Amino acid sequence: MSMSAPRHAWVSLRRSSLPRQRWFIVILALLGGCVLAMNTIVAGHVRDQIDAADVGKRLNYVVVDSSGRGSNGPIDAAARQQIMAMNHVAGFYEWSQAGLLCDDDNGLPQIVWATAQIPDVPPVTVAFDGRTRPLRSGEVIVPDAVNGRDLKALLGTTINVSYQRKTKASEAEAVPTKLKVVGLYDSSRPNNDGPDTVYINVEDAKKWEAANAGMSPQAFDKQGVSRAYVEADSRAHVADVHRQLSQAGFAATSQADVVGYADQMTSDTQRMQIVLIVVICLSALVLGVSVGSTISRQRGSQIAVFKAFGRSGEWILGCLEMEAFLLGVVMALAIVVVGLVLCGAAMALTAAGVHLGPVAMTLVPLPDVLKQGAWFPLLLVVGVPLGCLPRTVASVRSHKPYELLRSQ
């Protein structure tokens, strides 16, 4: 009887509880492993795609286009004032685009579309001359490749271009200017600004678009731009800003509309995960009750012997609850192992090029299993002893010590 309580609990677990409850444990381990794998593979990578689409708060913007059906026309100062007065609007940025003729044989197309760079909606930059920052007047970001020709050598150089200035109704003159290439963007991942795009300072874009229309910069500002980016104060309020713009007669679109399915997929996955977690936690309590019932039926003589040798009821209850706790630990470890195996299988299939639909957007890093759901198996460590507690308490109280052993 010199065996300690933890050692006695471990021996009882290994000899009795595990063999009797093994199938219950296997089923819960498979369910729990699926929960971890689902959370890691599906929800985690859907969230990664949203984050990739939301680089620089991209999803916070609503695009107002004056050429859209039902639009109020060019977006002028009055429209800007009206938009800025709307609820949850944090910023307003004009967009402009002008055609440029490339005067050098440097690999760029003969005609490129110089587009205003919008804050927080940059193209995917692969290189920048110095620290990434907003473009200044006279600077340009060009694609890293065009028609199979590598343009990385242009970084840091000055290119010669010309913009068109309208002089008469059907006549225009070319006005040469120079631009310094300060950045390269990934041509395989363009923004929604059309083909053959280069990015410049917004004031340069407005000046050149005004010249192309035969207007002074002041007259162009008064007329208004054809497109603008409206920034919501948070992604949660994008839909509200979009609704206000539509009600005010502006043609509006947002990238959040395009990736909205991902939000719904994430929320559906999370709801399914919550349901499975509730089911598994209830199952853990049921397992605890089952363990408690087994103890009350089979450990009666053992409890009586312990009492006959002077062990207190608290010590005996501690042994039994320790056994239930260790059973919960075994279940938790089994769930983590199954989750790791499932995620590892998905990673192996993805690396081998097997298409798994929305599940296999990127490689599955195994540490994500623990990062995403390590807290969940801990619920089982608590649930099993709690489910076992009522029956073990009743069993310890109801069994009397063996008088025969006590008298010796």
Automatic annotation (TrEMBL):
Keywords: Membrane, Transmembrane, Transmembrane helix. The chain crosses the membrane at residues 274-295, 325-354, 374-394. It comes from the Bacteria. This is ABC transporter permease. The lineage of its organism: Bacteria, Bacillati, Actinomycetota, Actinomycetes, Propionibacteriales.
